[in-house]
Give the backbone structure.
Amino acid sequence: MLILTKPEELRKICADWHKQNKTIALVPTMGFYHSGHEALMRHGRKIADKLVVSLFVNPAQFGPGEDLAAYPRNLDRDRAIAQNCGADILFAPDAAAMYSADHATWVECPNLSETLCGIKRPGHFRGVCTVVLKLFLLTGADIAVFGQKDWQQQAIIKKMADDLNVPVKIESLPAVREKDGLAMSSRNIYLDKAEREQAAAVRKGLLMADSMVKAGETDASVLQNAVLEFWSKEMPLGRVDYLSIVDAENLKELNIIKGSALMACAVYIGKARLIDNILLNA
Ligand code: AMP
């Protein structure tokens, strides 16, 4: 596995691969790998001739006061995991390599960004779109793999690629979870023992809403109130950032569930901001 830090080196090797008619899968990440990242990498390994994994804690997607400086990092361990998952390249640039001092161009996808995490983290998806488009252009990836834990992110990337005619296929994989249902996240490391125990309630609340929908409930506010009440009992250390029910495609808020909908949430527990979601089928 090659470890690259310079965008131009990445571009050159990927261009050579394309000349040899090799297909390229890209898995963009911020590192500190867990089994969710591994699932994406192993999938990427299977579906293309070459696998590029990027590891970049993208400053442009962190707001003031967010955890950019504290974001967990462990390059040695990540390198071993990426290699083990069959990556051909681990692309780990620093911020200066990705953004020149006079960087001025940004990619935005307003409609899908004006809901859920986009409201709570202004500028976040602008940073995500910009760096992901740069990675698409550098690699010319045929396929890029994302996680459905970040449902809004994969929806926005699909829309961006479609709108800008980027010839990349976007695939998304279900969230990999801990035994108690907590979605794996690099940020789970921030949780102390009591916080970690309570964090399992995030998923349990969403599953409770799912059961209610299966039993016939379609009123979004009834479902939301039930989950909030459950969390207030089971997760006293939690602070809900948002809990929304939206159309799974256009991410617009729904009052009544007809067909399928997405229940998505962000919850602060201690220093961690945890996100999760579930597809509800009425
Ligand atoms: P991150 O390093 O957190 O930016 O995540 C990199 C990629 O891994 C994104 O596409 C995420 O959606 C995906 N991902 C993060 N957590 C999980 C998980 N628990 N299961 C599956 N994919 C995940």
The beta strands are 2-4, 24-29, 50-55, 89-91, 143-147, 169-173, 238-246, 260-269, 272-281. Residues 29-30, 36-37, 39-40, 146-147, 149-150, 173, 175-176, 183-186 surround adenosine monophosphate (CB under 6 Å). Residues 193-214 form the longest helix (22 residues).
